[in-house]
Amino acid sequence: MEEEELEGPNSASEKRYFPESLDSSDGDEEGILACEDLELNPFDGLPYSSRYYKLLKEREDLPIWKEKYSFMENLLQNQIVIVSGDAKCGKSSQVPQWCAEYCLSVRYQHGGVVCTQVRPQSAVQLALRVADEMDVNIGHEVGYVIPFENCCARETILRYCTDGMLQREMMSSPFLGSYGVIILDDVHERSIATDVLLGLLKDVLMARPELKLIINSSPHLISKLISYYGNVPLIEVKKQHPVEVVYLSGAQKESFESILRLIFEIHQSGEKGDIVVFLACEQDIEKAYEIVCQEGSNLNPDLGELVVVPLYPEEKCALFKPNEETEKRCQVYQRRVVLTTSSGESLIWSNTVKFVIDVGVERRKVYNPRIRANSLVTQPISQSQAEIRKQIVGSSSPGKLFRLYSEEFASKDMRPLKPAEMQEANLTSMVLFVKRIDIAGLGHCDFINRPAPESLMQALEDLDYLAALDNDGNLSEFGIIMSEFPLDPQLSKSILASCEFDCVEEMLTIAAMVTAPNCFSNLPRGAEEAALTCWKTFLHPEGDHFTLINIYKAYQDTALNSTSEHCVEKWCHDHFLNCCALRMADVIRAELLEIVKRIELPCAEPAFGSEENALNIKKALLSGYFMQIARDVDGSGNYLMLTHKQVAQLHPRSGYSITKKMPEWVLFHKFSIAENNYIRITSEISPELFMQLAPQYYFSNLPPSESKDILHQVMDHLSPMSTMKKEQNVCEKCPETAEQRCALQ
Questions:
Q1: Strand 112-117 versus strand 179-184 pairing type
Q2: Which residues neighbour 63 within 8 Å (Cβ) at sequence distance 6 or greater?
Q3: pTM across the whole model
Q4: Rg of the chain on CA atoms, in Å
Q5: What is the average pLDDT value for the chain, to the nearest integer?
Q6: Is the separation of the CB atoms in 158 and 178 below 8 Å?
Q7: How far apart are CA 718 and CA 712, in angstroms?
Q8: Where would I find the Helicase ATP-binding domain in this sequence (predicted)?
């Protein structure tokens, strides 16, 4: 978000607190009369600024504006309203404002308005835009709540939040009594949290007849939503603008070369407008960015500058929506080329886009419950995604969409709808949440698409291994506390275990660093050697988890001793570290520490650096990640997973890869099946430590392997008394059969 954009709502609001008519009048009757003639904003009681009227004209030009009367009528007379609209029709910004007007008309007797977004970037951007349009202060009348950031106040009447944050709010307020209107936006994205909310809100609506539910979606999912919710009113918004679609079927085999050729041909044609390129994966973004930047510098400067904008999904501030001054400057001097993936479909709002290049494929993460790992699969996008990409072309003048595939490919190989995330992802966190909600009597969730039984069973089994379930399949005390943390259940369990092993401070740092985006910067060509030299100063002999603690401590020391934020950014740049990621880790850690204090968990003084502390950190990690163990089977860095027969290598940026030291047994944080099967964030463990901390019934369920035989030998050499004691504790916890342990209540 650019500075000038952020200043819009705040500067307008500051002016309204000190109107010129009041400042200059000094008791003059003319000044008082002028003030009385001003129209007052009903949301804060202050006169509207001139900017409000300027933005109002823009709002009235949006395709959805003509449906305002129809929407308000349906909102008054119905509990559920579905809004069907194409991308950029205005439904995400205008519908919430109309709902705020409705809540104002009934004096907020049932609560305010909340509007969910799938991505944090969208929630922040929309809140800023809507606060500007409503002529109120961001963080006051309009605010946003995203993971690890709350920009709201008691007087907030309209808040944007991620669907996951509203889901978490249901743990403390199951019936969402603070809201009179709930808006689920971008339902067609089919995120797990949105699908869960769609199901749970059915029960909430029955318990609260005064509550209103608005569902915003693209047209492709409407028939499914109507059959799911029954006969509910539908508001349809059409956004018609001319888009020339060009199919380049021969370009699919050499799509990368075709993309580069198209970018330069468009630029050299002299036609005005920005270019958006949809690539398959982030690696393609990096590759294209480097080539376009390099080749673009050799182009004719009379054509204007070619500015390349890589739009990564993890970057919170990487939302492509330029402010007015930048747009005017761009039309004269610059043409932007935005490189993104499927995750950028809902993040591009600029009307200056006149060309879209679509490769027609994407790399998706598909979770395999049998091996507890994601597979990175390249597959065709859906027909609904292809249509959304078409709608990104600006509406002010005709645009072009280049599809690097044939019409036959679109009709035969593309699925009609984007697959639901619930059918392709790890469901352990979702099941933990549903179990927690069951305490409030909302455990029955009527999903719009049922999750795969195998994925549900795997999630239940994992929660049982983590001691989150009791003998009846309900949440244990451990499970209830684990659900308090906005983290993966394995990471939550490690934090709880760290209380026992006196290493809470260190475990919170690890949790924050692995939750935040990657702290290592993307390296330009030729910088690898210099970066490795810098990173070696942070390496810890015990493993990557400990290296992350070193990096965070060095960042904190720099921040404490620096006179300005610029010094911190320079330090990060000099050490090839991502300053935004480290800032985010700092925020995450602070919130996790707040949760630890709120639920009164014991927290020992930090002792990082001692041998005993290192052992305790490994014990805490193993308590949560005993299912993610691998062994070097040949001494050359080929690691075989303990739970299945997949072989992986250490990631090139692992400390062990840099130092060429390959431990035999490692605990890893992340593993995905792709061209390079890398395990990421690894630390050495001993088989003895694993046998002491892994649940006995988990070990007995492992498939036969050489690694399991080695662990059997280790178990035989352990003290018979300690082994007997552990088995006794395990038997007290677990029921007789796995089926009983994993029963879904």
A1: parallel
A2: 85, 86, 89, 90, 237, 238, 239
A3: 0.86
A4: 28
A5: 86
A6: no
A7: 10
A8: 72-238
